[in-house]
Each structure stands twice: as C-alpha cells, then as structure tokens.
Amino acid sequence: MRAMIEQIKKLLQDFVAPQLEAIRGDIKALTVEVAAVRSEVAALRQLTDTRIAALELLFNTKLIALEQKLDVETAAIKESIRSRSDLTDQRITNVEDKLAQTNTLIEAFRRELAAEIRRVEETLSADFVRMESGVDTRLAAIKSDVDTRLTVMAEKLDFIRRELLAEIKVAKLQPA
Fold first, then answer.
1. Where are the domains of the chain?
2. pLDDT digits (tens, 9 = 90+) for 166-176
3. Which residues contact 84 (CB under 8 A, 6 or more apart)?
4. What pLDDT, on a 0 to 100 scale, did the predictor assign at position 68?
5. Which of the four pLDDT bands, split at 50, 70 and 90, describes residue 6?
6. How many CA atoms lie less than 13 Å away from 167 in the CB half-sphere?
7. Residue 170 host element (H or E)
8. In Å, how far are 2, 10, 17, 18, 106 from 7, measured between CA atoms?
9. Model pTM?
C-alpha cells in the first residue's frame, strides 16, 4: 500500500505539480493584468473627474456671466419703464392742466354771461313800464342769442372734452 501511495504521489508530482505551477503562473499573470486594468481605470476616473470639474467651472462661469447680463438687462428695462412712466405722468399732468384752463375759461364765460344777463335784466326792469311791448320782443331775441351761444359753447366744450379724453387715451396707450 505504501508503494501505491508512493506511486500516486509520484504521479501527482509528475503530472499535477507542473499543472499547478502553470496555473500559479497564470494567476500571477492575471493578477498583474488586473492591477494594470485597475491603474487604467483609476487614470480614466481621474481624467473624467478633471474634465467634469473643468466643465463645471466653465458652466458656472457662463452661468455667472449670464446672470450678470440678465441683471444689466433687467436694470435697463426697469429704467426704461421708469422713464416712460415719468413721461406718461408728465403728459397726464399736461392734460390735467389743459382741463383746468378749460374749466377756468368756462367759469369766466359763465360769469360773463351771468353779468350780461343781470345787466339786461336791470335795463329791462328800468324800462319795463315804458317799453313793455318792445321788451318782450327784445327779451326773446336775447334769449335766443344766449341759447345759441350756450348751445355753441356746449358743443365747443363737448368737442374740447372729447379731444382731451382722446389725448389722454393716446398718452396712456402710446409707448414713450
């Protein structure tokens, strides 16, 4: 039996041992290849990280530049709106001034008409007894004249009012 064990041992040493040595050599070669692949992967990872960092820096730089440009544009738009608003306010003030002048003219004309009517009434009452028949005719003529003037004035005032309202609408709609 010992001889058989010795023969098996010799057989293993002759056939299996060289195979094991070959396998060990292959494992060592594979270990070296795996280490080389790991080094390549690490180098690629470092290159990728460097490129990503460069792209992030470029992106951040461009983003900051875009934000600054947007801030400048926004400020310019705000200033434009502010100046147009000031111009619109000035136009509205001008229209309001014209309306005030028109109101002043209307009030002056109303006073003038009231004074004229009072003067006519005083003249008529002093001469009433003496000229009763003629006064009726004159009074009708004056009334007609006043009505005509008031009608013309009302038409003029209405026309001026419509013009001013149209100017206000144009001023509000018109970009400065």
1. 2-173
2. 888 888 887 65
3. 175, 176
4. 92
5. confident
6. 16
7. helix 132-173
8. 8, 5, 14, 17, 141
9. 0.37
